[in-house]
Write a structure and sequence with these properties.
The complex is a heterodimer.
Chain A (H helix, E strand, L loop, with lengths): L3 E4 L2 E4 L5 E7 L5 E7 L5 E9 L2 E4 L6 E3 L9 E3 L8 E8 L10 E2 L3 E5 L1
Parallel strand pairs in A: 2-11
Antiparallel strand pairs in A: 1-3, 3-8, 4-5, 4-9, 5-6, 7-8, 9-10, 9-11
Chain B lengths: L3 E2 L4 E5 L4 E7 L6 E7 L6 E7 L4 E4 L2 E6 L4 E6 L8 E8 L5 E3 L3 E6 L1
Parallel strand pairs in B: 2-11
Antiparallel strand pairs in B: 1-3, 3-8, 4-5, 4-9, 6-7, 7-8, 9-10, 9-11
């Protein structure tokens, strides 16, 4: 079955440490996205990538970094510069609208807690 | 600046009745709109979408209505079922294909 795999599902980090969240897709989608969900604030875009080796900042990119070395993978690093990293992180992928019915496919998320 | 707004954080509906979830947007350049359903600790799943050239799209129990002049869309679920209890997000897209999400509405179906 095609889909998006995020790992781990739960992650604990000490303050001052960097941590990397994994996102892998086997849907052959070109574009990939990282969102953050906080209570009462919906989903906010952190970074996105529309092709390999290229990515752009979203609305709340400060304190985060990404890479897109392979089409299938889009890891997100939460750095120590991120002031409030505790949140639920969602990865998504999509095909261009011209290729058919449009919509994002989401992974099951990673809950990051800073302790 | 919240470009997509869901002003009702929560909604309770009796099983079998109609659920109506509302969404307002401010950017008239949005040309594609989607609704997602989300259970706790899971990723959102796509429900239904509508292009700005249409005013209605229907898929089974789900219908989305778009009123461009009012910059308003709504999701109707008829009849509502217990499994519909979840958080519903509306989302809007510009030509760059990034989605902007609303803050969500928690729907509770009362048996």
């Amino acid at each position: 079955d095609g889909g998006i795999t995020q790992s781990p599902k739960y992650l604990f980090r000490k303050e001052g440490q960097n941590v990397t969240l994994s996102c892998e897709q086997n849907l052959n989608h070109d574009a990939m996205y990282w969102y953050r969900q906080d209570p009462g604030q919906g989903l906010r875009l952190i970074y996105y990538s529309q092709i390999v080796n290229d990515f752009q900042k979203g609305d709340i990119a400060e304190g985060y970094s990404v890479s897109r070395e392979k089409k299938e993978s889009f890891p997100l690093t939460v750095t120590s510069a991120q002031k409030n990293p505790t949140a639920f992180y969602l990865c998504a992928s999509s095909i261009p609208r011209l290729k058919g019915d449009y919509g994002y496919t989401f992974g099951s998320g990673t809950r990051l807690t800073v302790v | 600046d919240q470009q997509v707004k869901q002003n009702s954080p929560s909604l309770s509906v009796q099983e079998g009745r109609i659920s109506i979830l509302n969404c307002d947007y401010t950017n008239s350049m949005f040309d594609y709109f989607l609704w997602y359903k989300k259970y706790p600790a899971e990723g959102p799943t796509f429900l239904i979408s509508i292009s700005s050239i249409k005013d209605k799209n229907e898929d089974g129990r789900f219908t989305v209505f778009l009123n461009k002049s009012a910059k308003h869309l709504s999701l109707h679920i008829v009849p509502s079922q217990p499994g519909d209890s979840a958080v519903y997000f509306c989302a809007a897209m510009l030509v760059d294909e990034k989605l902007t999400f609303g803050t969500g509405t928690r729907l509770t179906i009362i048996p």
